[in-house]
Amino acid sequence: MRIGGCALALALLTACMAVAQDADLILYFDYEAIDGSTVVNKAGNGLDGAVNGQIDIVDGGKLGMAAQFAAGSYIDLDGPSWAADVTPREGMSVLAWVNVDSLGGDHAIFNARAADDTWLIHPEIRGGDGNFRWLLRSEGGNTIFDVRAGSAADSEWIHYAGVYDSGDGAVLYINGVEEGVGPAGADVAGDWGKGARVGYNIDNARPFTGMMDDLNMWKRGLTQEEVENIMEFGPLPQAVDPNGKMATAWAAVKAR
């Protein structure tokens, strides 16, 4: 049976568009728009964020628009609503483009606290130390690793990527380059019962002040190749660009 040119082109386009979104992607804020006071989670699980304070969508992001955080403003993720099958345990990755106004203080990219008061997750730009931080804790408040590495800077776009796998350990990538490592060990504590926020710690400390773009979170440790692809293309699968060229569909070929 012969397939006409139009039908064949449509079939090829459909196949390219059918690259499945990675089920391990649990949070993605592209910061292209805010729907009222809601930041829509493009991971598609309905776990959206609520704006507290002043967060504006501005030009000049790394992959389109960006979110401008005023000091003390944050996105509330309603941590207790995150079910056990969504909350990272055996692995976790937090990635974002960041551009902070000043290194006069520490800037929290994301923060979560468990029901037993354990401070779980600290991806930060640290003004006092002049570096970046990647920390996770297990049940009971035991620190799995605390990586502080790299050279922080203000008023410029920097890509932050903290990844962790309970079998392989932790890596902190800055602009796609490995800057520090941490040991393998226990699973991450399994709940965000006392809350989860983007841009401000649960105890109203370490405000992120500046611009953030393409925040994405995963419930597994990403590879360096995946980190590099997300830096360039974002975390969602790519299909065909308007000029007919095949973009990188990295999600279809990633190493697990």
What does this structure look like?
A hairpin with a 2-residue loop joins strand 14 and strand 15. It contains two helices and 17 strands. The protein is 9% helix and 38% strand. The N and C termini lie far apart (38 Å). The protein has helices at residues 5-17, 224-233; strands spanning 25-29, 38-39, 49-52, 55-61, 64-69, 74-76, 91-100, 107-108, 110-113, 119-126, 131-137, 143-149, 158-165, 169-174, 177-182, 195-198, 210-218. The radius of gyration is 19 Å and the shape is globular. The protein has 256 residues and is mainly beta.
How does the major sheet shape up?
A: 9 strands, antiparallel
DSSP strand content = 35-45%
Termini separation comes to 38 Å
Poorly predicted regions: 1-19, 239-256
H/E element sequence: HEEEEEEEEEEEEEEEEEH
SS content category: mainly beta
Query: Helical proportion?
Result: under 10%
Average pLDDT number: 88
In terms of quaternary structure, the protein is: single chain
Number of helices: 2
